[in-house]
């Protein structure tokens, strides 16, 4: 069995003699803190991300919960993002002295204590009054990167100020390129260290839950990164999703590869492309100037029945392996969609992800306990990943190799 690193140019670190970097609040260096299980919710202690979701559901309005939880159409991709992980099994290694583990990695020069970042998601003030400032605080406590959505309720300057660690900005391209360009200039001036261009939403997926609730932003909640008023609020109509109307009116369905080049020229920070599932698109993104790819189907919220992200990841990683970015650097490969357990992170790393992003789990934490809740969810995932590493016989990420994975055989081949 091959024990050597498999990913060319991986920036993963070898184990340090002192063991892993403890997350904030760790009672003793060397082990991640135990989540506080004494707190309870209507359905029991919050031992895992699903418990946090149940607690969040009981605190959110039907409209907010429906917006956060929903996928598009029949929500097949939403479910498959999760179940694809459960069709993968771990061929763990033994007798490797796992008493010391280093979970750290480096993404675009920034050291992460474990390979997880915060995915961009819209409207955090539906979960907590502090909104994205709370999220940035939680991400910062854990030394990780938060990707701030274009559709954030708090201004980018306030969010960057709340973090000691890099904040990246997720961009949607608007029909009005002046507005888009001004937004890029603003977030760069605010200190965002990278821009993540979302490319899987030329139109908004059909989210029936939002149509049923007539999704809109409650009084006093706006999108604070825009100046013109018609860009700051969502329309409100019975039986319609306000976000769908907003996107149809303002976002540009004509975006193409030349727009990525425009952005790369305009932004003095690295640009990554989010929403890639086809290996050829991954290679095209690098050719047009991207520094990295986020393998993602938008958490099952865009094209329903699209391939689960974890399934797309291995094809994309293989496709980009022989390619470098325009400046000769190695591309960053991130993935998101359905990551809820430490073993999910392990599987994504084994398939070549430099790190995963989590979307909804952070929203559940925010909804239950604001910044503190998001921080507890991050601790939980950190601790689960650390345990998964130890039980799989891995002391550092270079040892998390594809041979650890076994796949369920399709029924017709058995
Ligand atoms: C409520 C919600 C809002 C989102 N908003 C955005 C957004 O504004 N921009 C974007 O690129 N992706 C957005 N996403 C997609 C996430 O970035 C991410 O791809 C997805 O949530 C990952 O799946 P997970 O929720 O299963 O972890 C959103 C996802 C959710 C659940």
Write up what this structure looks like.
With 414 residues, this protein is α/β, with parallel strands linked by helices. The chain has a single domain, classed as Aldolase class I (TIM Barrel, Alpha-Beta Barrel). 36% of the residues lie in helices and 12% in strands. The chain is built from 13 helices and 14 strands. It has helices at 49-59, 62-69, 76-86, 132-141, 156-161, 177-190, 208-213, 242-250, 257-266, 279-287, 309-321, 342-350, 360-392; strands at 40-41, 44-45, 88-90, 105-107, 110-112, 116-118, 146-148, 167-171, 195-198, 271-276, 292-295, 332-336, 355-358, 405-407. The longest helix is centred in the last third of the chain and has 33 residues, at 360-392. The structure holds flavin mononucleotide. Flavin mononucleotide binds at residues 67-68, 81, 119-122, 149, 151, 170, 198, 274, 296, 298-299, 301, 336-339, 358-360. The site of flavin mononucleotide (FMN) has 23 residues, from helix 2.
């Amino acid at each position: 069995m091959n024990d050597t690193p498999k990913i060319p140019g991986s920036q993963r670190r070898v184990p340090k003699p002192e063991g892993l970097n403890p997350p904030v609040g760790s009672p003793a260096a060397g082990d991640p803190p135990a989540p506080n299980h004494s707190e309870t919710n209507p359905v029991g202690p919050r031992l895992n991300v699903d418990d946090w979701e149940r607690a969040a559901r009981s605190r959110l309005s039907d409209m907010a919960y429906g917006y956060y939880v929903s996928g598009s159409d029949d929500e097949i991709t939403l479910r498959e993002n999760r179940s694809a992980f459960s069709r993968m099994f771990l061929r763990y290694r033994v007798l490797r002295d796992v008493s010391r583990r280093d979970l750290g990695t480096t993404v675009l020069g920034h050291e992460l204590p474990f390979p997880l970042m915060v995915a961009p998601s819209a409207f955090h003030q539906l979960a907590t009054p502090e909104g994205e400032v709370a999220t940035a605080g939680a991400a910062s406590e854990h030394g990780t990167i938060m990707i701030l959505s274009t559709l954030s309720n708090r201004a980018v300057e306030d969010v960057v100020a709340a973090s000691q660690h890099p904040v990246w900005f997720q961009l949607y391209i608007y029909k009005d390129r002046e507005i888009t360009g001004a937004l890029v200039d603003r977030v760069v001036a605010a200190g965002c260290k990278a821009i993540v261009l979302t490319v899987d939403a030329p139109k908004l997926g059909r989210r029936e839950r939002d149509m049923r609730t007539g999704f809109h932003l409650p009084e006093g909640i706006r999108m604070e990164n825009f100046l013109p008023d018609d860009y700051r609020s969502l329309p409100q109509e019975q039986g319609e999703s306000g976000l769908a109307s907003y996107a149809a009116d303002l976002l540009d369905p004509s975006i193409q590869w030349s727009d990525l080049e425009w952005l790369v020229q305009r932004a003095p920070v690295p640009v990554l492309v989010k929403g890639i599932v086809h290996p050829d698109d991954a290679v095209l993104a690098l050719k047009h100037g991207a520094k990295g790819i986020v393998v993602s189907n938008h958490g099952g919220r865009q094209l329903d029945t699209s391939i689960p992200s974890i399934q797309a990841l291995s094809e994309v990683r293989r496709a980009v392996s022989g390619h470098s970015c325009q400046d000769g650097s190695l591309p960053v490969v991130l993935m998101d969609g359905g990551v809820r357990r430490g073993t999910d992170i392990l599987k994504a790393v084994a398939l070549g992800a430099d790190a995963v992003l989590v979307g909804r789990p952070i929203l559940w934490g925010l909804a239950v306990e604001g910044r503190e809740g998001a921080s507890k969810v991050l601790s939980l995932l950190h601790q689960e990943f650390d345990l998964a590493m130890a039980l799989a016989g891995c002391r550092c990420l270079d040892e998390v190799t594809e041979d650890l994975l076994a796949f369920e055989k399709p029924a017709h081949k058995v």
